[in-house]
Design a protein that fits this description.
The protein has 335 residues and is α/β, with parallel strands linked by helices. The protein contains twelve helices and twelve strands.
């Protein structure tokens, strides 16, 4: 496997989990070129910018980006926020579709979250009377492109897509539902259903095994993907991929920078390692290797759980187990 990967360790436990990802890559994809660049809070300290120009240029030229975590109390109240880098790199790379899989036992669902629109990017401000507002905005083209991506992904899974909205009360959701329905005509082999966000949240908790692929706007996706992660075992094992139409994908664990445990080898690297598996699947087209890594991570979580899962094993213990499992396979199968 040839190509280049930009690693953005970031803050808190980010450098620790990125180091575990690099160990995995050294074993199963030794021909990949991996280079680290500053990002997030540490980049503010070093360069005054959470997304330095050199980092962005390297990311644009790479085949994929691996991101650790950003943020922490050290940068609270500062002129620049580490999270600006996260929003910035998503915008600059055009990664509008955020994939959040949740796998656990019989549960195997995939949430496709629109990533570049909605409340987080709409007009906001404060009126003279003290009212604060954030605007939920979407153009039909933004909805159509993420819907098309979701249909393609559902077609490669079990052929069922649920579009989640609040069409009973929100005009943006009514437009969302209309556009998704129209795009669905291009995919007669995929079964499309529509559901409301609140009832879907409850159903994810009570019957998560009934879902296949879901697509939703930014805020709903942010919330419901965390609900799904909780059902599947917690944010410590939740991975994500952010994809566009061209350029590199961005792969990152869902957990935050966890500064309270940074440097103590307590961070669960499973989400980062599963993010590497997503990178193999979507940026390098190697589904077989992705499956091997996912299987090895599942085995490690059962055998050497970290404190977030009720165990006492370390960050490196988990990766050691993953690498041992992969070494037990024929090397030709995993590289």
């Amino acid at each position: 496997m040839n190509g280049s990967v930009v690693a953005l360790p970031g803050d808190g436990v980010g450098p620790e989990v990125i180091a575990e990802a690099e160990r995995l890559l050294a074993l199963v994809a030794p021909d990949l070129r991996v280079e680290r660049y500053p990002f997030g809070g540490i980049a503010i300290d070093e360069c005054g910018d959470p997304l330095p120009a050199e980092t962005l240029a390297a990311a644009r030229a790479a085949d994929a980006v691996l991101l650790g975590a950003v943020g922490g109390p050290a940068w609270d109240g500062g002129a620049r926020r580490p999270e600006e880098g996260l929003i910035g790199i998503r915008q600059e790379l055009g990664v509008y579709a955020n994939l959040r899989p949740a796998r656990y036992g019989k549960v195997d669902l995939l949430i496709v979250r629109e990533l570049l629109g909605g409340l987080y990017y709409g007009e906001y401000g404060v009126r003279l009377d003290g009212t604060v507002y954030d605007t939920l905005e979407y153009h039909p083209d933004e909805v159509a492109r993420v819907a098309r991506k979701a249909f393609e992904l559902a077609r490669g899974r079990r052929g069922r897509l649920m579009s989640v909205d609040k069409a009973n009360v929100m005009s943006t959701s009514r437009m969302w539902r209309k556009v998704v329905t129209e795009v669905g005509l291009e995919y007669p082999d995929v079964e499309l259903t529509h559901a409301l966000a609140d009832s879907t949240a409850m159903r994810i908790v009570t019957h998560p095994e009934t879902f296949d692929t879901l697509v939703m706007e930014n805020t709903f996706g942010d919330i419901l993907s965390d609900v799904a992660a909780g059902v599947a075992g917690g944010l410590g094992i939740a991975a994500s991929a952010s994809l566009g139409d061209n350029g590199p994908g961005v792969y990152e664990p869902v957990h935050g920078s966890a500064p309270d445990i940074a440097g103590r080898s307590m961070a669960n690297p499973a989400a980062m390692l599963r993010s590497v598996a997503l990178m193999f699947r979507y940026s390098f087209g190697n589904a077989s290797l992705a499956d091997h890594v996912d299987t090895a991570v599942d085995a490690a979580l059962a055998a050497v759980p970290t404190p977030d899962l009720g165990g006492s094993h370390t960050t490196t213990d988990v990766t050691d187990h993953v690498l041992a499992t992969l070494r037990s396979l024929q090397l030709e199968e995993v590289s």
